[in-house]
Specification:
Layout lengths: L4 H23 L19 H13 L6 H14 L3 E5 L2 H11 L15 E5 L4 H9 L3 E5 L21 E7 L8 H10 L3 E5 L7 E2 L2 E2 L6 E5 L12 E5 L2 H11 L47 H32 L6 E2 L7 E2 L4 E6 L7 H10 L24 E2 L4 H9 E5 L6 H16 L4
Parallel strand pairs: 2-3, 2-4, 3-13, 4-5, 5-8
Antiparallel strand pairs: 1-9, 6-7, 6-11, 8-9, 10-12, 12-14
Length: 442
């Protein structure tokens, strides 16, 4: 949309007022120890996100448009992946990724009902849910203590004749042992869906996570590495997978025209499909049973501004993690501290602490103390998902025991390292840890 000179002048005035409003709000942000909440995560933004959001709103495009295309290009370029499609959430991204692998276009490699997918029981439910929603059978393996990722050595042991895919997250931003996962995936011709929702900016052998899977997923929920409010993305280097992802995201249609464009294929009214009459409008031909999972241009506009901050966000997450680690490592008699996977550089989502079984306190005691002193904590999402009420009657297979998963469910919590935390807040956090732990330290 071409703007008039007057339109541009008015917008400039609006943007100047937005900047003034943001600066006024920022002046009111004062940290008061013991009174101000120290969140585990949160939005980090300035007037640039607000201006982009208002700019997109003034265009009133409403659905996916120019900002979505810019955001997709930016994320693709940052990660070095050819194709990126925005969606309305990270959970939708996982649903889209798994559903894509059931497409008839994949012929003998398509996943069919009751085929098996190797995954983790220790994580967020929407890594697991798309497996069940597509009529597939999850196969659970245990995690390692310290990395809190799946035990990669067990992946190959979990394979049966029905195993067709691996779907795994990088836990709290800590990269998986990717080499072993890829070795098994290639050896047994398995699809690898890489859940990168908690790990944007993490690296394994100098390469970004989210670039190893046949399909990878991202989330832009406010707690994540960048945010668009609600939002996510699917990424792939495979043109056929991209075509299927696009179809399933956009109602299952066969057409690949961008919103507002017609007849990109130049054969809109001159093709045959199924039992439809010849020349049926290609815009209304459906080759998959799909969804509408697109993001809006308003969301994407925020993402465009956030992408410019992402390198700094990654540095701050690592800095905050290191600051906490240098102090809390003196309490290893009480905690098992996080351990980065070999060859990895995590862009940490949080700082996990596993209370040792012989510690003189339990998780509930220290979590209660931290929360009473305004320091937010979180569990490792669903703990052992097999013990959640939603999955009481789930059909699945478990390879080996899940004793480490159960230990994490009972003893682990994590605190924030997100870029919005100040040195003053981190210092106060450690003071509260010291107060609680000093009475137990010999």
């Amino acid at each position: 949309m071409k703007l008039s000179k007057k339109d541009n002048v008015i917008r400039k005035e609006i943007f100047e007022r937005i900047t003034q409003l943001f600066l006024l709000r920022k002046m009111r942000d004062v940290f008061i120890p013991g009174e101000s909440m120290i969140n585990y995560a949160g939005r980090v933004y300035d007037e640039r996100e607000l201006i982009k959001l208002v700019d997109a709103s003034l265009d009133f495009w409403l659905t996916s448009g120019k900002y979505a295309q810019e955001f997709e290009r930016s994320l693709s370029a940052f990660l070095g992946v050819k194709h990126c499609l925005l969606v309305n959430s990270g959970s939708s991204a996982n649903l889209l990724a798994m559903s894509t692998l059931t497409s008839p276009l994949l012929k003998h490699r398509r996943l069919r009902p009751h085929d098996e997918v190797i995954t983790t029981a220790c994580g967020f439910p929407t890594t697991l849910n798309p497996i069940l929603q597509n009529g597939l059978t999850p196969v659970f393996i245990d995690i390692d203590i310290g990395s809190f990722n799946v035990n990669a050595a067990m992946v190959e042991q979990a394979i049966s004749k029905r195993t067709k895919a691996i779907c795994l997250p990088h836990t709290l931003g800590n990269p998986l042992a990717v080499d072993e996962i890829l070795r098994v995936s290639r050896k047994h011709n398995l699809w690898f869906v890489e859940d990168n929702c908690d790990a944007l900016g993490s690296r394994y052998k100098k390469r970004f996570t989210g670039t190893f899977g046949h399909i990878s997923t991202s989330s832009f929920y406010p707690a994540h590495h960048i945010t668009t409010g609600e939002g996510g993305a699917v990424l792939t280097n495979d043109p056929l997978l991209k075509r299927i992802l696009l179809s399933l995201r956009d109602w299952g249609r066969d057409c690949w025209c961008e919103p507002g464009h017609d007849n990109t294929c130049k054969k809109r009214f001159s093709q045959s499909f199924g039992r439809l009459p010849y020349g049926y409008d290609h815009k209304y031909v459906y080759s998959h049973i799909g969804y509408n999972l697109k993001a809006t241009d308003m969301q994407a506009a925020i993402g465009v501004a956030q992408m410019q901050k992402l390198p700094k966000f990654i540095k701050l997450r690592r800095r905050n993690f290191d600051y906490l680690y240098r102090h809390l490592c003196s309490y290893e008699q009480f905690f098992i501290l996080p351990r980065a996977e070999n060859f990895s550089e995590p862009s940490w989502f949080g700082f996990p602490l596993l209370v040792r079984e012989k510690a003189p306190f339990d998780r509930a005691e220290i979590v209660d103390y931290l929360e009473r002193h305004k320091i937010a904590t979180r569990m490792l999402f669903g703990g052992n998902l097999l013990k959640q009420p939603a999955y009481a009657h789930m059909k699945c297979r478990v390879c080996g025991s899940l004793k480490n998963t159960d230990l994490v469910m009972s003893n682990l919590f994590w605190i924030g390292v997100y870029p919005g935390l100040t040195k003053q807040e981190l210092k106060y956090t450690l003071e509260i840890f010291d107060r609680f732990l000093s009475k137990f330290k010999s």
